[in-house]
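Supplementary Methods, section 5.1.

A reviewer requested that the exact input to the structure prediction be made available. We therefore reproduce it here, unchanged from the version used in the analyses.
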Amino acid sequence: MSCHYSDISAENRPSFLPRRPITWKSCSARARKKLEGFYACGYLYAKSADLFLERLASYPSPDRQHIWNKQRETKTAGMFDEYSGAPSHWFGSYVGKNFRFVRKTFKRVIRRFEKGYDFAGKSRPIRFECLSENWGGCRSTLLANASIYGTVRVCPRTLRKPLNEGAMVILHELLHQRLDIGDQRDRACHRGSDARCYREGARKLVQAGKLSKALRNNDNYVYFARGIYLAQRLPWTATR
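The structure derived from this sequence is encoded token-by-token as follows.
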């Protein structure tokens, strides 16, 4: 289960893609092609979540709450189900203000995908910088880095990822910087010396009742978006 190249082929490409706001630094033609695929698929993940939440917002509050919580109790409720598209799986039980925050965050990152980064009210293209194997964190486990506003720096190991995994990396990085979320740290997420809530750590935040951190952790958004995308391809709809 993943994003497919058929989803971003010429006949199926989202309308924004011919105008994609990207500039490049030190990226080969092969790397650019790979990153464009990751970017397009990451956009589809985020857009799927945005459309789902937009539809959910049109329902009366009791129905919205029911749909948000409907998949909370499943046979895998105590496990890391990375393919779940249930909002409560990644953000906990429905709370109106939390729903609004998640919805707002996806709208903001969608705008970033479509228009680029905001600099004092003016949009500038996203810059992808391709790093060498010997660059700092690329020598260890780093996949990508968005510590410079407007720039996503990518390690070579990311370019070896399949389409769906690369898309998740790009969506994760575009959620960084001025969207009021980031990589949360918590004891529940400890892996060795690293307490950042990556991957299964996103679910562990919810299981530990750390819902305020789950609401502001990048990977909770990434995995939710990927889950919604997959559910809609199967398909899955927001109905009772």
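The mean pLDDT is 88. These observations are discussed further in the main text.
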